[in-house]
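Table S2 (continued). Query chain:
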Amino acid sequence: PSCGQARTLELRTRGAEGGGWVELACRHEFARDVLYVRMTDGSGDDKQCMKGAITMLLDVAECVDAKRITLGLSQEQACCGEFVCSLLYIGFQVAPVRKSVLAGSALLLDFDFGFAAPPAICGAMSAGEQPTPEVSTSAEDACAAPSDISDTSDVEQEEDESDCRGLRRSRNA
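Corresponding output:
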């Protein structure tokens, strides 16, 4: 498919006991690598069914190589605190509704699959290598335990710990 195209998908999942079901209408925009999703229909209050629908949604997004999922919830769905909290817990984030292509959504949630490494970094590594970030904060540097404890005496370790306690006290004062 070319960059200007989109693919539509209809997904349906059923609960284990067959009591509940959920239907999802999806639109994958290739240019943005975004999978837009609305819960179009459902039946019952089957938590396993809802969990299965979200798992299926994540699997489908991965299969179509989407970089982000934008999930539009209706007013009724957005009022279900347990459901929304579950989505937030697994990594969805609240997104602004004003610029949504999902008209009529009371709440938009985005799930980003991560960021792509810049091409310069990817080109410099071999196929099996993974980038390893070396990031720390000044607080971590000041209070970090030595990485190789066997080379550090107990006295030095106690001094480091007392220095950290002093830093914490001075910050709280």
